[in-house]
Specification:
13 helices; homodimer; alpha/beta
Amino acid sequence: MTRIAIDCMGGDHGPSVTVPAAIRFLAEQSSVQLLLVGREEVLRPLLGAQADHPRLRVVHASEVVGMDESPSLALRNKKDSSMRVAINQVKSGDADACVSAGNTGALMAISRFVLKMLPGIDRPSLCAPLPTSRGHTHLLDQGANVDCTAQQLLQFGVMGTALVAAMERKEKPTVGLLNIGEEDIKGNEVVKAAAELLRRSDLNFVGNVEGDGIYRGCADVIVCDGFVGNVALKTSEGLAQMLAGSLRDEFKRNWLTRLAALFAISVLNRFKKRFDHRCYNGAILLGLKGISVKSHGSADELAFGNAIRRAFDAAENRVLERIAAQMAQMTQLQPLAAEEVQ
Amino acid sequence: MTRIAIDCMGGDHGPSVTVPAAIRFLAEQSSVQLLLVGREEVLRPLLGAQADHPRLRVVHASEVVGMDESPSLALRNKKDSSMRVAINQVKSGDADACVSAGNTGALMAISRFVLKMLPGIDRPSLCAPLPTSRGHTHLLDQGANVDCTAQQLLQFGVMGTALVAAMERKEKPTVGLLNIGEEDIKGNEVVKAAAELLRRSDLNFVGNVEGDGIYRGCADVIVCDGFVGNVALKTSEGLAQMLAGSLRDEFKRNWLTRLAALFAISVLNRFKKRFDHRCYNGAILLGLKGISVKSHGSADELAFGNAIRRAFDAAENRVLERIAAQMAQMTQLQPLAAEEVQ
């Protein structure tokens, strides 16, 4: 039985989304136990017929971290927030993973403070899959670290490799380095040093990948600093929204185009479904001694359910053990590399 | 009469694309004179009936810079390349602007060496428009500088403002700073310092813009370092290609979807045309004492024609004078800011 703690108060919509998503996931997955964390008086009435479900438990937490609250203040002052109590469940061993759609900065700060880093990893990194023309890829970091050293980019490669190996049973996932050209001479100093570290590692490094390579599926894992990763991700979201909006506008232009839309609707729906961002919701905060999953704040029931599923899959597939094992394999390389780069 | 020098040998397709594009532009625009630079024995036969056109001149250059050639070697050794001779025309005053689809690194290195920087500008910056849901925006730098100081990001804001003011007659174009959150505390140290400089400048600074804000049209000019800008641009290209490919696949799935495509074809074509990347081809290398325009290497005739048009418009609208004037306005702020940031 895999146990997932859910911060039910987080996100733009709070319990009205998180609780129904949890109940649905419980029905779909028989080997999960859910701990719903939040104000008991708010959560209980939403449970309805599921209130006494044997695999469901409400864990009371009196406070809520605001979406715009300062992460450091949330860390210091809100010891009984639903977010913190959910993370505490992982720390105490009462849960195997936790999920929150709350304040990203606070989730990172509190997860790091409570769970601590795995040995050999400097900073946690946000990682989620993205669709590609061949399937999907994992980009990390997606925004947890604005500045990274070459050593940290190497660690992202290790963690991404472990994640894909564990979740998708790929023995040697390919790792690419996000850069502005495929040639070795391209990029800034950190990226060039990271390329050197990746080349010397025992990871399956395939070299530099340009921005368009993300969606061409050039590698299973693509590493970059969190500033670049976040810009790539948000730029993609913005472009996809603009294109979708424009396609909709074109089909609504007049009665003829509306008629065309009727004929094309099933094709357009298949297309829409294939790239539905809700199916890619749930970024794992990798590098901690516990699994903490960040859902998009605006997630709806379907999207939040996918974040719960990601937490469940990560726990089931023992991602943490895999990262630790991969790091152990790397240790003989690290001191050499670290000296040369610093 | 505006005179444009064209490196006819550059790009993936060379003269077979550049010469027809030039001839078509000549027919469309009566106040342009074109200098076609390259091997005379290659170019002449392609001119056909236009060989004696009064506004067309072939300027012989014996060498060609290879698409994969080292920029520093091209700069040092190929003094008679079509690229260098085209840039020389601008330097000598024989042309008002030059265009090349050749090797980006070489074009930047040679343009900078031959034309020199404008006073007060540290580094050249690649700038081209991108479509948005409201019209278009100008993102810079798109890849000329992998690392930037805050001061350089401010200079990009100044140059972008001057470009949009000159080309689009907007008196106070809005300027945004590409970042990973809208709040002031977000981003790395360089970005935070740049925000401070931009706030104090007399530019119309609207604050941080996230990746999705590019396509929402949050600002007329969006500044970022060339690494981030290049990743944003290429990621967008990759996503657009994947989505277009997938939409095509969905409409080709079976005879029913092919029938739907027939009904939807005019709508789809309008949609396609609206975001045709060829219409956005032609990045100006800003900050030099001369106009040098970089076309995509793979540009076809339509795309290359748009790069020629961008060079023509920049020269006609006196972009260089506008940048110099904008820089002069800024000088009283600069010393203060530079001290505080360094």
